[in-house]
Design goal:
Blueprint lengths: L12 H12 L19 H11 L7
Length: 61
């Protein structure tokens, strides 16, 4: 079975964290507001997790 990007050490966790902070601002844990039901699209953290779980491990970010 082929590994996914989210399972690989090359997944850019620090970059996703940095972008998530910019998107929602400081003061709240990143998981607290990962997805809102009233928004048009999922936030950067949710989009990164979904994409990384679908992409192959050798995908270049």
């Amino acid at each position: 079975m082929e590994r996914r990007l989210i399972e690989s050490p090359s997944f850019p966790v620090e970059e996703v964290n940095r972008m998530s902070l910019k998107e929602k601002g400081p003061g709240r844990p990143p998981y607290w507001e990962m997805v809102f039901w009233w928004t048009r699209k999922p936030l950067i953290g949710a989009r990164a997790i979904i994409a990384a779980s679908l992409l192959p491990e050798d995908y270049e970010c």
